[in-house]
Amino acid sequence: MFGLNNKVAVVTGGASGIGRAIVERFVEAGARVLLVDRNEAAIEGAVFHRADISNESEIRGMLERAVGEFGHVDILINNAGIQPLGVSFNDLTPQLLQRTLEVNVHSVAFGIKHGGQILNAGGRIINTGSFVGMIGSPSGTAYSMSKAAVIHLTRLGAIELAGKGITVNCVCPGTVLTPAVTDIPNNPEIPFVSRATPLGRLAQPNEIAAVFHFLASDDASYVTGAIIPVDGGITAGWSEYPLTPPANVVEGQWHD
């Protein structure tokens, strides 16, 4: 089930975190993978390619490298990004906003553009969004906005590429136990999200990669334009909301 035998995938941000989990899972499922990152990584069964995905020409170049290496491309995972959380409007600067847009939004927009030109019919483009692109998040500013843009770019890409037989979807993780989270000393996000998430814990990278795996497979042939939260239920609503019924509710009856 969900086999990727002889599929060729390009995974950006594949050196660590969610991206690495995707690469490892795809290789195990039989895919040939071009691992794209600024930091070199060695994963058996994957070919490393260094690129700055904020640069359009390098996005085109990584896809052409995959074609040269493997003959074609079936799957593009637009996963690489930066995560400047904890920055409020008061602390937002033009440089931070611009860099966040370049890495998190431009890369997806141009990934869809060039992926749509290079991928085979039946191809898959899967973008990494975030739960904070779906709900309001204090001190999210640049990052949350960028992930909201990724969500909308996914819908637009799905519409434009449907005629070519290419699907475009977006996975929106909750907080995941990756170095971006765990390397922050005494990170207050970890206990807070654990309390706020209905499942009561953070995600493991392989739990997110599993959804990418499904969307990349032939079994997901009729799924496009989908925004899929993989967040332990945090976007479904609060895990607790202490309330006291009004006095005119007695034994399940409303009394006017």
Written account of the structure:
The protein is of the alpha/beta class. The chain has a single domain, classed as NAD(P)-binding Rossmann-like Domain (Rossmann fold), CATH 3.40.50.720. Helices cover 38% and strands 16% of the residues. The protein is built from seven helices and nine strands; from the N terminus they run βαββαβαβαβαααβββ. It has helices at residues 17-28, 56-70, 94-118, 141-161, 179-182, 189-196, 205-216; strands spanning 8-12, 32-37, 46-50, 75-78, 124-128, 167-173, 227-230, 249-250, 253-254. The strands form two sheets. The chain has a seven-stranded parallel sheet with strand order 3-2-1-4-5-6-7, with helices on both faces. A two-stranded antiparallel ribbon has the order 8-9. α3 links the parallel β4 and β5 (124-128). α2 runs parallel beside α3 and α3 (94-118) packs parallel to α4 (141-161). The longest helix has 25 residues, at 94-118. The model has no long low-confidence stretch (mean pLDDT 96).
